[in-house]
Structure formats: C-alpha cells, structure tokens
Amino acid sequence: MRVTVIGSGYVGLVTGACLSDLGFKVVCLDKDEDKVKMLQAGEVPIYEPGLKELLSRNHAEGRIRFTTDAQLAIDHGDILFIAVGTPAQEDGSADLAHVLSVAAMVGRNLKDFKLIVNKSTVPVGTADRVRAAVKHELTQRGMSSEMFDVVSNPEFLKEGAAIDDFMRPDRIVVGIDDGIHHEKSQRMMGDLYASFNRHHSRTVWMDVRSAELTKYAANAMLATRISFMNEIANLADALGADVDQIRRGIGADNRIGYSFLYAGCGYGGSCFPKDTQALVSTAQAHGQLMSVVNATEQVNERQKTLLVDRLVKRLGDDLTGRKIAVWGLAFKPNTDDMREAPSRVVIKSLLERGAHVTAYDPVAGHEAMVALKLDCAGQEALLNNFNLVAHDMDALHGVDALMVLTEWKNFHNPDFQAMKLSMRTPYILDGRNLYNPDALADLGIAYQGIGRRNEL
Ligand code: NAD
C-alpha cells in the first residue's frame, strides 16, 4: 500500500515521516511551493523534536517525497490522507475551505479506487461533504462515483512530542460507515496501522460521525481540566491555599489521575482554542447548550490576562519606563508554534501600557515576531518597545519583573542569585508554577505563581 498525505504542516509532516519510517512509500503534497522546496532541500519548516532526522533518513532512503503536483500525488497513494488546516472562522465554526478544496482536487484527479482518510479536525458531517465534493467532480467527468470511500481518522498527537505520540499511540480512532466499500476500507486501515496493533489492538473502530465528534470531545475534556484547575488555583490564591498540593491530592485518585491538572496562565495552541469554539458552534447550530465548554473558554480568556493584572496591581496601570522580561513565547515547550499563545496577549497588553519588553525563547523567536506583527497591525510603533534576545539571562538586565510564560526545561533551574543581581527589582511572575515560592522568598525575590499562596 502506498500513502499520499495532503497538507505538509505539523500533522501532515509527522504522519508522512512516521508512515515512511514504517516502510510505506509516501508522497507529501502541499500547495505552498516554498515549503515544498524547503522540504525537498532537506529543511523542515517547523520545529518538532526528531522530525528533521526522521524526514532526512527516509528521504535519503527514497521512502518519502514532497511535491506540489496534485496529479502525481493522487496517482501515487492507495490511501490519501487529508491533513490540511481547519482554522476558526469569526463565528467560531471551523473553516472547511481547505478540506473541501482538497476533496474537489481529489475528485478532479481520481483514476482508480482510493481510500480518502480525513485526519484534519472537522465537525460532524464533514465526511459527507467531502464525499459529495468528490462525487460532484467525478460526475462532471462522467466517471463512476463509487471509486472511493471516505473514512475518519482524527489525529491526537501533541506538538513537542508528536513523533512519539504517532509511533506509540494510546489509541487510533477510525470511523468507517456502512457502504459498499466498508470491508475494503476496514482492511486497508487495519493494514496501515498493523504495526501499532501487534501487542494488543489499539484501534477503536466506530462510525464516521462518532469519530469526528470524538476528536472534539477529547480536546474539550483536556481544555476543561486545565480551566477547572485554573479556577481552583485562583480560588486557592484568594484563600491562601496551594494549588500544587491540591493537584497532588486530587491526582492520586485513580478516577481523576494526574494528567492535565497544571494551573497556569492559560492554554493556547492551534487546537484547544479553535476546537472548543468549533464544538460550541456546532452545538449552537443544533440547538444544544455546551455550557461546560463555553465556561472553559471564558476561564481561559480571563486566565491569559491574570499575570498582567497582577503586575499592574503592583506597578500601576501606566508602565511607561518600566522594563519587563518574558521567558517563553511558544504556547508550550518543544515547539515554535505561536498560534493562540498566551504570550501574545501578555506582550501586547504590556506594550499598550507603555512597558519595554525583552523576550527570550529557545526556538520560537522568529515565529513570535511574525505573530506580534500581526497582533500589532495598525499599532506598529508598539513594537519599537519589544526586542528579542539570544540568551535567557540577557533578558533580565535592569528589568522590573520577569514573566515566565512557557515551561521550557532550561527555565526550571536558573541561577536565582545571578537573576536577582541582574534585575532592577527581583520580582518573578511565574505563569507555569516552575519555582518554589518558599525558596524564592528566602532569596528575597518577590514571587507570584498561579495559586501558590501568593501575596497578591
Ligand atoms: P498546518 O497549518 O500546520 O498545516 C496545514 C498545511 O496544509 C499547510 O502546509 C498548507 O499549506 C497545506 N494546505 C492547505 N490547503 C492545501 C491544499 N488545498 N492542498 C495542499 N496543501 C494544502 O496545520 P496542522 O497544525 O498540521 O493541522 C492540520 C489539521 O490537523 C487541523 O485540522 C488541525 O486541527 C488538526 N490537528 C492538529 C494538531 C496539531 O497539534 N497541530 C493535532 C491534531 C490535529
């Protein structure tokens, strides 16, 4: 079986790289010529640990190729993955323009049977729309409209650990509908993922609509855990309790578990914000309430402004002449993805109040500049007060405060004495609860974590 992956972003590239590493011959198609040229030259447009090595090894061994040639790509694969973006629209619903344009493109190029596998995160009913778009093109060409099937195979990888997640999945969700190709599609998907099912079956088979909704339900559940802990943390601050102790206390309950119980300055990324919004929007369209998920989003929006609110309470609303350091820009460690990163909200808000911001991130500096330029469109002068530095300690000279916004490993154990000497006032706002409040108090550093018995 040969595989084509349409869309060479985080999901498409990881899928292509991992399947080629499992021995499949893979073609990755993207419409972005610059991206494809980079990939052909052995460069990787995104930062994802292990991805570059995996791609270059399989590229050198002839198992993976990159192209903008749609006909070549469609001819190549028995299985065609759709892994293009589904960004949020103004009203929160998912924009399916890329998915449906890929479906039409497949229909225009199809010559024999193909299994179309939708990996993009899409609202329930999208597989039907993909099916209709392909059929429409086939009918236009006077060809049989039964030459394909559409299945759903949502992706659960986490950026920063994507290769490991793909290669060692907790589960693989595959949605297939009853129809003339049911058995064939199930066999092909079974063969595709056989390597992951050798020890025990990790594939959860279901119908297409349930598979589509499973992805949203999973992300909404994870986002809800985070917002729930953020609310508990804020209450803990008001009551003089410590959310980290509470986390351990509830996580030890098997029914709850430890994952996704970390309070912080809000979640971001390309998935949680957009997928929770899309779920709410789908529910609304069907006359259903999604109160829990709605509240999850509201809490997250508030949480992103929490650190600036605290800083303002201490230093005043007018931050003109103040210098603030920021450690960590990406929405989480081990990625350069800046989509919906809380740092964007924090930095813009600091700049609007007149502060000078000096920021450091191990890999996301370039992407952060692109994102901040977008955020400050029409207020470009704000960026005159923003600069990036190449080392974490360089950000601290003469600053009034340090905000830690991403839990990169190298922020875990900094030299606090040197930091204190470098800063104008030793004041740390720890948006990821990396540090021990008591230890910092002993060092004479003012500290505010999230729900850590802060003096607010
Ligand atoms: P991305 O924006 O990084 O990549 C999408 C790619 O598709 C881009 O390279 C773009 O040029 C390409 N593309 C768009 N239209 C095309 C077309 N007509 N033909 C060929 N290429 C086209 O997106 P991503 O982060 O990889 O996400 C893809 C999907 O997977 C989304 O639905 C997302 O919600 C979902 N998802 C993402 C993650 C994640 O962590 N990023 C995890 C799970 C699921």
TrEMBL record:
NAD(+) binds at D30, K35, T86, T121, E159, K274, R339. Substrate binds at F156, L157, K158, E159, K215, F260, L261, Y262, A263, G264, G268, K332. It comes from the Bacteria. The active site is at C271 (nucleophile). The keyword rRNA-binding does not apply. It is an enzyme of class 1 (oxidoreductase). Gene3D superfamilies: Cytochrome c1, transmembrane anchor, C-terminal, NAD(P)-binding Rossmann-like Domain. Pathway: Nucleotide-sugar biosynthesis; UDP-alpha-D-glucuronate biosynthesis; UDP-alpha-D-glucuronate from UDP-alpha-D-glucose: step 1/1. One of its GO terms (biological process) is polysaccharide biosynthetic process. Keywords: NAD, Oxidoreductase. Residues 325-437 form the UDP-glucose/GDP-mannose dehydrogenase C-terminal domain. The keyword Membrane does not apply. GO terms for molecular function: NAD binding; UDP-glucose 6-dehydrogenase activity. Its EC number is 1.1.1.22. It catalyses: UDP-alpha-D-glucose + 2 NAD(+) + H2O = UDP-alpha-D-glucuronate + 2 NADH + 3 H(+). Catalyzes the conversion of UDP-glucose into UDP-glucuronate, one of the precursors of teichuronic acid. NCBIfam families: NDP-sugDHase. Belongs to the UDP-glucose/GDP-mannose dehydrogenase family. This is UDP-glucose 6-dehydrogenase. It comes from Limnohabitans curvus.
